[in-house]
Specification:
The complex is a heterodimer. Chain A has no helices and 11 strands. Chain A has strands at about 5, 10-15, 20-25, 30-40, 40-50, 55, 65-70, 75-80, 85-95, 105, 110. Chain A starts with a strand and ends with a strand. Chain B is mostly beta strands. Helix content of chain B is about 0%, strand content about 55%. Chain B is built from no helices and 11 strands. Chain B has strands at about 5, 10-15, 20-25, 30-40, 45-50, 55-60, 60-65, 70-75, 85-95, 100, 105-110. In chain B, strands 2, 4, 5, 9, 10 and 11 form a 6-stranded mixed β-sheet that branches. A 5-stranded antiparallel β-sheet of chain B has the order 1-3-8-7-6, with no helix packed on it. In chain B, strand 9 and strand 10 form a beta hairpin. The chains are: A mainly beta, B mainly beta.
Chain lengths: ~110, ~110
């Protein structure tokens, strides 16, 4: 079974631009969560999508948004990029049942100049 | 809001000895806890979990202990191996809620 895939793996943008990251979950997984990892901050929860609906949301500004498609693939969008948005963005999927462990993708490294 | 805290950013142990990684949480609604391991340039991988109805769960060299009254959990690795060197994240979840992660502890196992 293929794992969680994320594209692109690396991205360089400038302040004010917008970016879209993509995540393909493990086949059969209906829940996709997004996290931001910065040095010393651990993994900060952005949002979770389940069956095309946002089920949970973390404490990030409205510049961060996402969506999920009928095939469970998910995209995350960040508008008006700021230098502080530079981070590793991780996507994780799980079947959708509660308490199942999440499986993470390799992440997208975003650098904002 | 740091609902899950890993107060030790780093830990160094000798090969063959025990590694103990600690984690504290503040939200009493958390009832499921997990440990993830992360190597550079890779996403975190699931290691072991424990439900709040238990106080211990073992899987080979890895054991997780949960002390609900103290809102504390720990991961024991015995014996530690150089390949265990990685960043370890503690995570906690309540029913149908998002999973909260700690800041991570970098474990270095010296040969």
């Amino acid at each position: 079974k293929a794992g969680v895939t994320q594209t692109p793996r690396y991205l360089i943008k400038t302040r004010g631009q917008q970016v879209t990251l993509s995540c393909s979950p493990i086949s059969g997984h209906r829940s996709v969560s997004w996290y931001q990892q910065t040095p010393g901050q651990g993994l900060q929860f952005l949002f979770e999508y389940f069956s095309e609906t946002q089920r949970n949301k973390g404490n990030f500004p409205g510049r961060f948004s996402g969506r999920q498609f009928s095939n469970s693939r998910s995209e995350m969008n960040v508008s008006t990029l700021e230098l502080g948005d530079s981070a590793l963005y991780l996507c994780a999927s799980k079947r959708g049942d509660t308490y199942n462990e999440q499986f993470f993708g390799p992440g997208t490294r975003l650098t904002v100049l | 809001d740091q609902q899950v805290k890993q107060n030790s950013p780093s830990l160094s142990v000798q090969e063959g000895r025990i590694s103990i990684l600690n984690c504290d949480y503040t939200n009493s609604m958390f009832d499921y806890f997990l440990w993830y391991k992360k190597y550079p340039a890779e996403g975190p991988t699931f290691l072991i979990s424990i439900s709040s109805i238990k106080d211990k769960n073992e899987d080979g060299r890895f054991t997780v202990f949960l002390n609900k009254s103290a809102k504390h959990l720990s991961l024991h690795i015995v014996p530690s191996q150089p390949g265990d060197s990685a960043v370890y994240f503690c995570a906690a979840s309540a029913y149908n809620n998002d999973m909260r992660f700690g800041a991570g502890t970098r474990l270095t196992v010296k040969p």
